Amino acid sequence: MIKFFLMVNKQGQTRLSKYYEHVDINKRTILETEVIKSCLSRSSEQCSFVEYKDFKLIYRQYAALFIVVGVNDTENEMAIYEFIHNFVEVLDEYFSRVSELDVSFFNAVSQAFHSIWQNTG
Amino acid sequence: MVMSSLKLQDLIEEIRGAKTQAQEREVIQKECAHIRASFRDGDPLHRHRQLAKLLYVHMLGYPAHFGQMECLKLIASPRFIDKRVGYLGAMLLLDERQDAHLLITNSIKNDLNQGIQAVQGLALCTLSTMGSAEMCRDLATEVEKLLLERSPYVRKKAVLTAVHMIRKVPELSDTFLPVCAKLLHERHHGVLLGTITLITELCERSPAALKHFRKVVPQLVQILRTLVTTGFSTEHSISGVSDPFLQVQILRLLRILGRNHEESSESMNDLLAQVLAVNILGRFLLNSDKNIRYVALTSLLRLVQSDHSAVQRHRPTVVECLREPDASLSRRALELSLALVNSSNVRAMTQELQGFLESCPLDLRADCASGILLAAERFAPTKRWHIDTILRVLTMAGSHVRDDAVANLTQLIGGAQELHAYSVRRLYSALAQDISQQPLVQVAAWCIGEYGDLLLEGSCEETEPLQVEEEEVLALLERVLQSHMSLPATRGYALTALMKLSTRLRGDNNRIRQVVSIYGSCLDVELQQRAVEYNTLFRKYDHMRAAILEKMPLVDRGGPQADEEVKESKEATHLLEPAPVPTEPQASKLLDLLDLLDGPSEDSQQPPPVDPSPEGTLIHLLDLPCAPLAPAPIPNLKVFEREGLQLNLSFVRPPGTPTLLLITATATNASEGDVTHFICQAAVPKSFQLQLQAPSGDTVPAQGGLPVTQVLRILNPNKAPLRLKLRLTYNHYGRSVQEIFEVNNLPVEAWQ
């Protein structure tokens, strides 16, 4: 089950965040910084699945933007990995060569994500 | 133009040369007229050429029905060149709807019996393409004979023809059934492929065939396995996969055979899963993409629980992955390696794991250390190796091991009589080098205290001779005591060790007495108490000192408990013993019943080891009657009846304890035959606690003999609705019976 979905840039600013489990507002920032720290510290050689506390993080880097999905044990890591990529391709089509700016300024992104997410379950 | 002997090629050229549709039609019409004329004239030499041209024209879409009779004539001709074109024409021009097709049956029959491969091949081909039902029936026996021909070429074609025949005339399956099993032994992939297809067709059409072929499932799996596991075979492999077509066909057949049939599915499953899945996973491990490796490791981990041996094959690769710089991968590899350790590879694996321990990141160290220790415990080949391993782990990662590692090691050493000298020496040298690793220091201190005399003896064949002076030993222990790195617990160990040495060492004890008296004023209360007690031992009870400080007997496994506690719990468990002990083996069998009810809670099945109020429990047990009370306010319930054997439940709610319910299950036998080996097991949802007491017996004699009673104690702290599932196993009239059922209409007063 997906716990959260984040799009964070390299400086640690969150461009999009969706939580599917209740997390307090102040805890969210801490969570996001920790998550981005663990993703940043990894080189490109290492695999995209990180174990963090009691769940797993699956992340992909696109230029300066990290997309991180936190899942619990029941989820298939490769499936989520490809799902992230699928989502990015959708955005790419929609915005024709999407950039970080688009993501931060358009509500459409979160809506697009939500509809994809619901369809894939 | 004289076109009567126009070769096919020339015709094609001409047709291609035509610039427009009309032109082409013209050419063709002219040619067709010539062909018709030639057919009428009956020129045998060039007939084949004419027919070839006609066929080409037919391919282009023009009517060619007048060539049908010519086909027949060509087929009948003895020349191969005629037959070839004739059969080709038959396949293209003749089909079921034409009346002429039956006429070739005879020719085909003759050709099939001829014995020339090529001709037989042609005939079979034609038959399989356009054979109608009547033709198939007529020629079935011939084809069947050919299935056993020597030449694989003919056999392959024969099998394909058989497939066609089955499709056309399902009744013929009887003819082909017996041959199939023999054909499965084929080496030739073509024939094998055909056979599999034939069997598939047979199974699809007739359930009798299905049953018959279920027997060959192991054979199929064997074939599949050889295909998958044998290496590269240039003849049949396609991008590294050997004969995927055959594999797919076999899989399809297995799917059909396994449908709705437990036994064959099972035999398929374990072989298939093993062979296919594990190999693929192993290949993933070698992939360079890290993500794929991660997934492979995760899946293998899940697999190793169900099928250990298959994963063993990939052990070297997994061990490689341990060395990955990537943290998640190495963690997974560590888990998998630990799971793969077994008695045969334990030495090699622990070596690898110890190497890993040295270099691994800190968060994995604890897991690695405890994993190694656990593996060593389960599979240690010799005690000495075990001690060595634990020692090494303690030296390397001492601060990260679990707390009971110390206790385990001391117990282990204590138990290994022959190794006392060896271990104490090793520990002494380790301690002399480094007193910072607390678990190590604790164990070493204990050992030196216990076996100090062996240390000083000087000779031990297993390690290099180590000359140790008494003074050195004392100095070391003092250092441990004084070091700021030592925990209070460690200091306690060291102090006690010093005391023990006072009896073991031959010199005088002044130094020891000095140290002990210093610590009499230590700030740490624990140490102070010990020091004061030891001091008193020196002064007032010197005569008892030797007796008190002699070598410890082996501590019981299960923790360092004070003696009184152990005695108390023994008493408490003694009374509970008879009831839970028979339920222990039952509990494990019950666990598979319990998908409906979420299983009895584990703790109710095991006697509590250290009962907090042992006396309370004793009273409890003594209070409760073990026989059913006579006036039961809750109505009895008859829950089971079969062939004279009846099971009744009676309920009692003792007034003192509102959450307790006692059910007495009574089994009576009104039939003519005895009921023997009667066992009744029960299951309740998780929130309840169930205790089955021992039944009064396991035989219910016939015709109203003495019934078997059994008391069930159910604790219901949450006052939740009671659900009860019962499992009865017994022998009656020579048969063994097993019944599982849920008791549905439990009276409400039972749980409210």
TrEMBL record, chain A:
GO biological process assignments: intracellular protein transport
Membrane topology: Peripheral membrane protein
Keywords: Membrane, Protein transport, Transport
Pfam families (alphabetical): Clat_adaptor_s
Domain AP complex mu/sigma subunit, residue spans: 1-105
InterPro entries attached to this UniProt entry: AP_complex_ssu, AP_mu_sigma_su, Longin-like_dom_sf
PANTHER family on file: ADAPTOR COMPLEXES SMALL SUBUNIT FAMILY (PTHR11753)
Protein name, UniProt field: AP complex subunit sigma
Species this protein is from: Myotis brandtii (Brandt's bat)
